[in-house]
Amino acid sequence: xxxxxxxxxxxxxxxxxxxxxxxxxxxxxxxxxxxxxxxxxxxxxxxxxxxxxxxxxxxxxxxxxxxxxxxxxxxxxxxxxxxxxxxxxxxxxxxxxxxxxxxxxxxxxxxxxxxxxxxxxxxxxxxxxxxxxxxxxxxxxxxxxxxxxxxxxxxxxxxxxxxxxxxxxxxxxxxxxxxxxxxxxxxxxxxxxxxxxxxxxxxxxxxxxxxxxxxxxxxxxxxxxxxxxxxxxxxxxxxxxxxxxxxxxxxxxxxxxxxxxxxx
Length: 264
What we know:
Elements: E1 4-7, E2 12-16, H1 27-34, E3 38-42, H2 58-68, E4 73-78, H3 80-91, E5 96-102, H4 120-132, H5 134-146, H6 152-163, H7 171-183, H8 187-192, E6 197-202, E7 220-224, H9 231-234, H10 236-253, H11 257-262
Parallel strand pairs: 2-3, 2-4, 4-5, 5-6, 6-7
Antiparallel strand pairs: 1-3
Helix pairs in contact: 1-10, 2-3, 4-5, 4-7, 5-6
């Protein structure tokens, strides 16, 4: 069973962190969301306080999260967490009322028809370096999250401090996560999903080009002009306002009377 922490009052909201991270990284952004939502932050398999049981496929990771997530919730998935959220929307759409893809993408590596991504060789290199120099590799990856964003130095210090608050991720889970990032292609989910999807991106993201939003113009998208790959850290209030705008407006339209009352 994955580790979760729930606090706040209002409509149900699930937070999924990125590769090599844990739910303790949300920090001040989670505090802002808790003012309007009942927030459940999940540690992905082998990350933070969640054990790793050999989950390999993306569907396995999504199943693990679905087992602990509140029903009929809205989800926010950061980076790898966005892939897991998309997979959950594909597997059990009625469980999700909406998804925000936070600095995430349906396909992380380039293809002949998908230039808006990183080279697959980059993730192969990370996997090789992780096997021989795990601590150094993770430090480099953490620094990459904030490159190009306003206040990068301060936000990076905060991120590193929060990462130290929980155990290091399981080595096998890290390698499995890299495989998911390298092999997953959930573009069909974005084309056919009945779950409302939204994109929250950083204009200076070195991993997920903000131009990826143009491939799916039907999705509502917001780009934070001076943010990198972790806009919730560098711009917590702007990101919180956008999530509230999308999800609380949706709550006002829902026929669920109990949920409407929870937003007041």
